[in-house]
Each structure stands twice: as C-alpha cells, then as structure tokens.
Design brief:
The protein is of the alpha+beta class. The protein has one domain. It is built from three helices and four strands, in the order ααββαββ.
Length: 81
Amino acid sequence: MLIWQLSSFYGDDRLLDVYQQELLVREGEREYWMPIQDILIPFLEKELIIGQQITIFARMPAILFSGTGPEFIFLINDFHH
C-alpha cells in the first residue's frame, strides 16, 4: 500500500516494480517493516543468518503525517554485513 501511494504521488510506477517485498528490521526493541529492492532478496537469503546484525542503506522519499505524528518512510537500497 505504501509503495502504491508513493508511486501515485511521484507519478512513477517503477517503484511498484522495484519494491514488491518488505523486510522486518529490528533496532534495539523497535521493529520496522521497510520496503526492500527485490534485487537484494537473493543476496540476503544467500549471505545472511536470521538475527545477524547488518548495516542498511536506505532512502527516505517521504514523511507521512497523521494524528499520531510524523511517520518517516525508508526504502532499503543496499546492505552490508
């Protein structure tokens, strides 16, 4: 849903082709679902172990505002372990 909203906002459907999956990211006790480029999935599956710490490189294309405050949207573009 988020990717569809961003694609509509930017008028560019390519986001729908590139970000079809999400990754559950844990930072301390916080959890985030972050869209991830599909091309990275095979590398994640091959190189990483569940629970392993990694560095994520992300883009922040939008901030959504709601009654609970701002929600920062990040898209995962790369990772290193």
